Description:
heterodimer; A: mainly alpha; MetI-like fold; 0% strand; B: alpha+beta; Rossmann fold; CATH 2.40.50.100; 2 domains; six-stranded mixed beta sheet; five-stranded antiparallel beta sheet; 23% helix
Amino acid sequence: xxxxxxSFELAGCVAAILLVIGMPVxxxxxxxxxxxxxxxxxxxxxxxxxxxxxxGFYALVAMGPRGPLGKLWATFFGHGLAFTFSGLVLAxxxxxxxxxxxxxxxxxxxxxRKLLDASAVLGAGxxxxxxxxxxxxxxxGVVTALVLSFAHTLGEFGVVxxxxxxxxxxxxxxxxxxYDRVQSLEYGEANHLALIxxxxxxxxxxLVYAVNRRVWTPWTAK
Amino acid sequence: xxxxxxxxxxxxxxxxxxxxxxxxxxxxxxxxxxxxxxTILFGASxxxxxxxxxxxGGLVHPDAGKIVVGENVLFDSAANIQLLPQKRCIAYVxxxxxxxxxLTVEENIEYGLAAIPxxxxxxxxxxxxxxxxxxxLRNQKPGEISGGERQRTALARSLVTAPRVxxxxxxxxxxxxxxxxxxxxxLRAWNAARRIPILYVTHSREExxxxxxxxxxxxxxxxxxxxxxxxxxxxxxxxxxxxTAGFENLLIATVLDLRxxxxxxxxxxxxSTCEIEVPLAHAxxxxxxxxxxxxxxxxxxxxxxxxxxxxxILEGRIVSLERRGAMMKAQVDCGVMFxxxxxxxxxxxxxxxxxxxxxxxxxTHSCHLVE
Lengths: 222, 371
């Protein structure tokens, strides 16, 4: 059960960090008129198609004692990144990035531009327009981003294995735990954890779809 | 145009090129002046009216030009001045109204008053809620109120900021005439004390008649005329104008003969046998001409009229009757199709119905030739 809590902790950290850094990126992607925008879009979407082991491999190299990230981290905190919880968070943020950015971007783009024009004409700057208009109208997108990045991080395997290894209580997340138990033929235990993950995944998707069907949002009429 | 410029008048000259998807690019190139009170911007859709308002409001950058309100320069390409929309003190009501759907009527109206102290803000919101008769709706959301109420809310939201200019982009489309008139009355009452310039964009001839003190006609990105509505719109100089200027009947005809001493000529409408007399124009026998007739200028009779000064009497049948606001619109087939406006009272008194035989009466000078 230890591994389950570790996974929750990891997913919570990652979802929170992604919400904070995902919003400005999604805002920029939604509203910039720069022609090279597709480049950043491709980079953001990269983790969707990249095998987790590839991502994990490069993350490990970068975080290692001779890697740029590892060195930088060591100068600030006195220890390396690889095989630590922080390293795991960092790699997971990259891995789940598209799951946060894309729902945010789509919901920002769906906000009627005329509302933004109206806000500007009424004297509101960008920040106020974002806070009072874009964000409230994108609430389903924000919930989707949070929930998907949480769930996606919860279930990751390849990246964690590459970057974190399998240190009990530090980097042994639930999916690795399940794998371990299967390897050692503890099918009952594995089934326990697997069922919990299955239930969570289903609940999470129900939440996402319900929110996006706007089951309880009052502003459906234009 | 009178040279006496009000101290707070809007004076603008704007050039803006827009490259569309097709090879043809659209150029807006206009100069205009709007003193306090309502000035109507009139023209067909696609004439550049909305682009012009976007430039004035600061949502679109003109390529060149200058926009001044009173002493304030809002935009000057030569001096490299360009105020953000937030700094222009211009209120802009879009055609879609763009009310914030997640905020209540009151929150919508408060939105533009963020910089104002709480107490002052309350007073201003209360005043405008009453002036535009939406105080009972303050806690409702835009999705829960009627079209007219939404339009009132949008006006109130813009005007509560005490703007120096008001831009209205067809804000009252889709409302019936009565409701429209009531809202316009409230707008006039509000502006009586403030005397700001109001630019009112429309493509509806009825609105021009109802509102107009001054009208500026825009076609294909240029100002083609300006002045009092009667002078500007009564003799259609262009076909496009005629189509938008409330001439519901636009018919192609062939010139049969010219009667120069009487100042008239006879024409045959379309491929039909209908012949009517219209004012003389520069045309020769056999020429194709176009004639524009307002639906409200046609009389309708249930028996062949006699002893009238009107020269044109056409026999036909009613094809359809439908209600349009306070009026009935009849389609009458006289070999060519005519649209005629009549009052519901007349429809009842004459017992009009589809397939009924009728006679249309056209005064010669109600038939305008389109060049």
